[in-house]
Design a protein that fits this description.
Elements (H helix, E strand, L loop, with lengths): L2 H16 L17 H4 L1 E10 L13 E8 L3 E10 L2 E11 L5 E5 L10 E9 L4 E9 L4 E9 L8 H11 L10
Antiparallel strand pairs: 1-2, 1-8, 2-3, 3-4, 4-5, 5-6, 6-7, 7-8
Pfam families: Lipocalin (PF00061)
Protein name: Lipocalin/cytosolic fatty-acid binding domain-containing protein
Main location: secreted
């Protein structure tokens, strides 16, 4: 059984076993300090949830990597790559820090006018060495878009990390149908 099927099996079993448990650990609202130099490097996207994702989207998305490269000790150049069929899709962006720790903005540009395609990204929780939880919000033409990413430095996560991901998705009113990996 591959790592993705194992992860999905774990999420499914976990959901069934914890469905009646109201004592889930609350995800942190944000780190009080953020160490950009420790955060940079290669991360694997091990979980992804969002209000614009549906079950049918699962077949379109594959595991992918994200590289955060710190530039001038202030912003991150972010490079992503995903295998789709016989090709490798890549995309990149710049994450600019805000005045609050662990919060960034990304300007995706566009024709709709200044400021209409700005994404707000928050590192909700990380230990820098094995996992990170990111949440992003962006206003689309018809609705706000929310995305939560579970990142890992390797394919294995520390105990309790998937619980934090599930808890954060529930706190944001997302369901199992909104989780695509």
């Amino acid at each position: 059984m591959g790592p993705w099927r194992t992860l999905w099996l774990w999420f499914s079993l976990h959901r069934v076993l914890r469905a009646q448990d109201s004592g889930l650990v609350q995800a942190q609202s944000q780190p009080r300090e953020f160490h950009s130099e420790k955060f940079q490097g290669v991360w694997f996207v091990l979980g992804l949830a969002g209000n614009s994702y549906k079950k049918q989207d699962r077949t379109m998305l594959n595991p992918y990597t994200t590289v955060f490269e710190l530039k001038n000790n202030s912003h991150f150049e972010v490079s992503n790559s995903m295998i789709r069929g016989q090709r490798c899709d890549t995309w990149s962006s710049l994450m600019m820090p805000t005045s609050q720790p662990a919060r960034f903005t990304v300007d995706h540009g566009g024709c709709a006018g200044p400021g209409t395609n700005i994404e707000q990204i928050q590192v909700v929780d990380t230990n820098y060495t094995s996992f990170a939880l990111l949440m992003s919000r962006r206003q689309a033409t018809d609705q706000p878009i929310l995305r939560i990413s579970l990142l890992g430095r390797t394919w294995t996560l520390p105990p309790g990390t998937p619980d934090k991901f599930i808890c954060l998705t529930k706190e944001q009113n997302l369901t199992e149908d909104n989780v695509v990996f």
